[in-house]
Amino acid sequence: MATSELAVKAPAAPAGDLVNDFSIQVATVNGSGSQSSNLVLLRTLFQMGIPVSGKNLFPSNIAGLPTWYTIRASHRHYIGRKKETDLLVAMNPETARDDVAGLRPNAAVIYDEPLRLDAQRQDLIFYPVPFDKIVAGVCPEAKLRKLVRNMIYVGVVGELLGMDWAETEKAVRRQFRRKQKAADLNWAAVAAGRDYAQQHLTKRDRCRLERMNETAGQIIIDGNAAAALGCLFAGVTVVAWYPITPSSSLCESLIEYLRKYRIDSATGQATFAAVQAEDELSALGMVLGAGWMGARAMTSTSGPGLSLMAEFTGLGYYAEIPAVIFDIQRVGPSTGLPTRTAQGDVSFTAGLSHGDTRHVVLLPGTARECYELAMRAFDLAEQLQTPVFVLSDLDLGMNNWMAEPFPYPEQPLQRGKVLTAGDLERLGGFARYRDVDGDGIPYRTLPGTDHPQAAFFTRGSGHNDQGQYSEKAADYKDNVDRLLRKFQTARSLVPPAIVERQGVGAHGVIAYGSTHFPLLESLDQLREKQGIDAAYLRLRAYPFGPEIAAFVRAHEVVYVVEQNRDGQMYDLLRLDLPAELAARLRSVRCYDGLPVDARSITETIVHLQD
Amino acid sequence: MATIPAEIKRNRIGLATSDYKGGKSTLCAGCGHNAISERIIDACYELGLDPHRIIKLSGIGCSSKSPAYFLNRSFGFNAVHGRMPSVATGALLANHTMRAIGVSGDGDTVSIGMGQFVHLMRRNLPMVYIIEDNGVYGLTKGQFSATADLGSKLKTGVVNELPPVDTCALAILCGATFVARSFSGDKRQLSAVLKAALAHRGMAMLDVISPCVTFNDHEGSTKSYQYVKEHEEALQDVDFVPVFDDIHVDYDPGTTTEIQLHDGSRLRLRKLERDFDPQNRKGALSLLTSYHAQGEVLTGVFYINPASPDFTGQLNLVPEPLATLPMDRVRPPQTVLDEIMSSLR
Ligand SMILES: Cc1ncc(C[n+]2csc(CCOP(=O)(O)OP(=O)(O)O)c2C)c(N)n1
Ligand code: SF4
Ligand SMILES: [Mg+2]
After folding, report:
1. Which of A310, A363, B76, B121 is most buried per CB count within 10 Å?
2. All residues at 6 or more sequence positions from B25 whose CB lies less than 8 Å from its CB, including other chains
């Protein structure tokens, strides 16, 4: 929800047909197998060339609690969440009344006939469907009925919207590609739903699909799988993790890819080691041990796990060990809303651990960037010899996104300042923590380097530039000042912020991560409905590069839009910018656990105008 | 390699003891931990281990400081309190050709580090893990640890009322494949046990009673030099015959068990008072669980299984260290990305 009372009431649905511009919400029960049906719907639209997005709003539960899936078709390529539902598929008796109550006038409802929802409101369009009767007709085996019942709504929805049946069948067969019988049965269920709708329902709503050509060549992928691919092509060799929603699927996908592509088929030998650790402390400990040894190592977690990693992160920072840590953010504090999305770990991550610590944080905003920044994270961790965080979130990580196919990396791996035995021979030794190049980044050797001067001692306690234990004031200060210098160097190495949209006039907007897509839509709303033509800068990393101050300098008012209560990025920006620029920032915060939608952003910004 | 005058004794790889030395110890004079460091230096020298092929890791505590006091030419990692096992695990996954020596304390292992310890044993990671066990937290000035015996007294008169955790029993139960207890004051036994542990491929867990002269060496303590000297009961006479030692000594198979270790070295255990089979896990556990009540400090090799698969072996890694594999072996080719992309269309 936005920080302020909504300034504008939800507009009534506009008159006229909604062609490729509406959202469907499917309300079911967790564990009822509706995921396959929803993916078939999503893929059908995608294959029809219509820009589409799907979002799963699910409970922290395996079976029995309500779950919603929203599918949005948008010829304007709006793939953020839409706040309003145009077509509701009400399959869950427990939430049906509330789901119906929340609709705008003229919205349509497909519902299970016995629920008698049509009596509830006069201003909606109702399509009753006797699901049990239909499923009994296509599925003689009673115990399978539960599994295919949900496919029937695919047929009903498709008939009402004008879906291309060839594409639907293709999507069904893809979904069950390893099980011919299941594919046949599910397709029969879709057809039964279609036939029922043809014979018994009269179309009265305004949602309609028309084939487009806007998705050709694109892929559908979730951010976690994309990040896993980034790790794969970054040449990760050690993976240590502890399961937690919404990050588990990152390591699970990665391990699947590694097993497929990084095991020698002749010998069965692996070029990676993946360990399910006993907890997140251990996961990061393993990553640091591996990074110290010279491996590219990663872990992924979410808020509670990140909290456990605080002490080890400080060690990684102070002892200067490369590590890559993905935080797929969910709603906190504490266990919070484990299956809802937020951008609430920003300030915690930026300074994770006690003492003076500052970390490099990458902020992917799209599925493709989950891939690209995952790869960059490994380079940066080794170049800077420090833990690097990649902050994604549940919306970006677990939902399906359309994306351009990912490009193959052009750059070789950047392995940083590592001295070999030959280098040591030439140099006559080295000092592990000496700033030789003036960029704050020292040289290291890898354990096992065969030279009498290769060894050094790694410790989290005070040390001089040779790595020897030291409590001397000057040694301590020199060291932490050098670390700050290194952090300044990072400003020029991290991916720069991108001006996504040039505006006209005084207004600028800064956002990051999964706020990106709804923000693009919000910028159109602001321009078209409010006459505010704002420029938009998308952050991709912390620390901030000079382009951020330049952007703020070019605008009188800059809105910082993010999905947390306290304006965490707003705070980091204010700390970083000169006072006169910091004063131009306005914080826009949306944080109800749902993926942020354009209208909520627009309304908050409009509200800040008065 | 270091240049050394010819008259200095060298081991089989041409190094002198000085090549295995560490920095000057900052621990209290007489601290048991120092004696253990000495034994580690001797063992590595005598076995002729290459120092640069060794990593030495620790947690936090007086004991955990000691890797700085041995093997200067090895790579050291002083981690955070209780979490050295995970760091060692990651390091060995990244390079399974290195040999690892971990040093921990009874506080570091049995309190804050209990979780990681249990999983380290369970994974049978190939390393030597030494608990320098003094029954107290030395570095934080003498509080009881979880290995303090029932009824043991602090200097302040406080009596320990909770039962100790037997780290050896626990290690065996969890899956360690070489488990022994020794005493920092028993030079001969500790040396032999250490060398055997270094020759073992798998988790070698050594609980070494190591008196804290400053906080736990008084009358009423069961971890004092005097108490351990008076109550130590050696289970066996431990002898280690390195693989490169071709001296043949006859032994009596009736009283002595000989176990061949991973690298071909042999561990010889001559029975003393009891009849005990160190390759019988159940027997070891039952001995350790029944022993405590008697107030004796039982030392020796309790369990050894030289043939069990270790963690890095189980993962079936390529023979080279993962850490330094070249790019073409860790970044799949363009065709793989193309294949994945087309599967997502
Ligand atoms: C997270 C954390 N908590 C507490 C401490 C303080 N601390 C340092 S050493 C130590 C106990 C060490 O005891 P032990 O492992 O038995 O080592 P000893 O000094 O007896 O050799 C404690 C509690 C710490 N360093 N880190
Ligand atoms: S306090 Fe105890 S454990 Fe610590 S160095 Fe002194 S004698 Fe050793
Ligand atoms: Mg202790």
Report:
1. A363
2. B31, B34, B37, B66, B69
Q: Return the closest-CA partner of residue A219 out of A35, A368, A96, A48.
A: A368
Assign residue A508 the CATH number of its domain: 3.40.50.920
Q: Which of A503, A510, A511 is nearest to A531 (CA)?
A: A503
Dihedral Cα A482, A487, A488, A490, nearest 10 deg: 130
Residues A49, A196: one domain?
Answer: yes
Is the confidence metric ipTM above 0.90 for this complex?
yes
Counting ligands in written order, the one closest to the CA of B82 is: 1
- Shared-domain flag, residues A260 and A167: no
- Domain extent, residue B122, equals 17-329
Whether residue A457 and residue B334 make contact (CB cut-off 8 A), yes or no, is no
Angstrom distance (rounded) from CA A272 to CA A235: 9
In a domain, B8, yes or no: no
Name the DSSP class of A337.
B
pLDDT digits (tens, 9 = 90+) for A155-196: 999 999 999 999 999 999 999 999 999 999 999 999 999 999
Q: What are the tokens at A303?
A: 């808020």
Residues A355-414 pLDDT 10s: 999 999 999 999 999 999 999 999 999 999 999 999 999 999 999 999 999 999 999 999
Q: Which of A377, A403, A429 is the last residue of a domain?
A: A403
Name the residue among B80, B79, B89, B82 with its Cα closest to residue B57: B79
Which of A293, A297, A454 minimises the CB distance to B52? Answer: A454
CA angle A384, A385, A390 (to 5 degrees): 75
Is cis: bond before A452, omega within 30 of 0? Answer: no
Task: With beta carbons less than 8 A apart as the criterion, state whether B331 and A235 touch.
Answer: yes
A183 CB-side CA count, 13 A:
13
Contact between B135 and B216 under an 8 Å Cβ cutoff? The reply is yes
Ligand 1 atom nearest the C-alpha of B59 is: 15
Chain B positions in Cβ-Cβ contact with residue A219 (cut-off 8 Å):
341, 344-345
Closest to A131 (Cα-Cα) out of A151, A107, A102: A151
Which CATH number goes with the domain that contains B122?
Answer: 3.40.50.970
Name every chain B residue with its beta carbon within 8 A of the beta carbon of A288: 79, 87, 90
Q: Any CB–CB contact under 8 A between B114 and chain A?
A: no
The DSSP 8-state label assigned to residue A463 in this structure reads B
Q: Which domain holds residue A535?
A: 498-609
Cβ atoms < 10 Å from Cβ of A507: 21
